[in-house]
Amino acid sequence: MSNVYLNGQFMPLEEARVPVMDRGFIFGDGVYEVIPVYAHQPLGLERHLARLDRTCAGVRIKNPYTLLEWRDLLSRLIANEPAKDQSLYIHITRGVAPRDHAFPANVSPTVFAMAKPMPPVPAAWLTQGVKAITHADFRWLKCDLKTTALLANILLRQLAVDAGATECLLLRDGFLTEGAASNTLVVVDGLLLAPPRNHLLLPGITYDLVLELATEKGVPFAERPVSEAELRRASEVMMTSSTREIVPITLLDHVAVGCGQPGPVFKHLLALYQELKPS
Ligand code: PDD
């Protein structure tokens, strides 16, 4: 099954090889995207490709393909993967060069992409919610770029796993930024609050879609800083991401969120989100 693309060729995953001097391997010098696919159709493709373009510009890697070329390449990967619901992964590194921190001259980016089945979110997560912990956000100051250098995110998410939790919510200078691998939305005094899109968090496509749905359907919300105190007294906390959609967090640092059950705002938003999904 040719469900992988590497530097111009489609091939089975087992055949894909990258030289060890690739700067992605040596330095984590690369960018990526994750795009959800439902019934063999991508959701939010243009937005993901626009974010990829912004990230490439942000780290000064030339986006190797046009929008049309990306669409074509990705539709071939989607068609080659039998599962209806998939996640598409795109990964571009600065390329292969002798090890030196400074950008190499005349290097071509390494381009890798793959489609793989996307399992549904476990039903119990939606009916009971999941546990999360909090931690100081010790990442860098360009969290709006979707780069492959994810060591800080990895360490933070592992803290959650070590604590038997699903996500680690990050606090910087007394304010909520996002999760280690998701955005976070909270409900405080009946109002949906979304931490503002700036350099401290990834502008999530799911976050965007959810807030657009909220605007369209008249769910009141505010995009503004959320303090730690607000997070701790929120009646609802939820995480959003392309592969997990919207998941309620019902236990935060061993304390029940609201009444400890998925709340009405989460249920409303999840129902609206389901209607967006291609079928
Ligand atoms: N991660 N914030 C971070 C740090 C993330 O890693 C992600 C998603 C999000 C949500 O973004 P989106 O809604 O566009 O998926 C926010 C992906 C799924 C991953 O790394 O696998």
Bound molecules: N-(5'-phosphopyridoxyl)-D-alanine
The CATH superfamily of the largest domain is: D-amino Acid Aminotransferase, subunit A, domain 2
* Spatial separation of the terminal alpha carbons: 24 Å
Low-confidence stretches: none
Question: Which fold name fills CATH's third level, the topology of the largest domain?
Answer: D-amino Acid Aminotransferase, Chain A, domain 2
Coarse shape: globular
* Total of domains: 2
Main beta sheet: 9 strands, mixed
Structural class: alpha+beta
Helix-strand string: EEHEEHHEEHEHEEEEHEHEEEH
Rg for CA atoms: 19 Å
How would you explain this protein's 3D organization?
The structure is a single chain. By secondary structure, the protein is α+β, with helices and mostly antiparallel strands. It has two domains: 4-117, Aminotransferase class 4, branched-chain amino acid transferase, N-terminal domain (D-amino Acid Aminotransferase, Chain A, domain 1), CATH 3.30.470; 123-274, D-amino Acid Aminotransferase, Chain A, domain 2 (Alpha-Beta Barrel). It is 30% helix and 29% strand. It has eight helices and 15 strands. It has helices at residues 23-27, 45-59, 67-80, 123-128, 151-162, 205-217, 228-233, 264-276; strands at residues 4-6, 9-11, 30-38, 41-42, 86-93, 110-117, 130-136, 167-172, 175-179, 183-188, 191-194, 221-223, 236-241, 245-252, 255-256. The strands form two sheets. Strands 7, 8, 9, 10, 11, 12, 13, 14 and 15 form a nine-stranded mixed β-sheet that branches. Strands 2-1-6-5-3-4 form a six-stranded antiparallel β-sheet. Strand 3 and strand 4 (41-42) form a beta hairpin. The radius of gyration is 19 Å and the shape is globular. Residues 34, 153, 178, 181-183, 202, 204-207, 240-243 line the site of N-(5'-phosphopyridoxyl)-D-alanine.
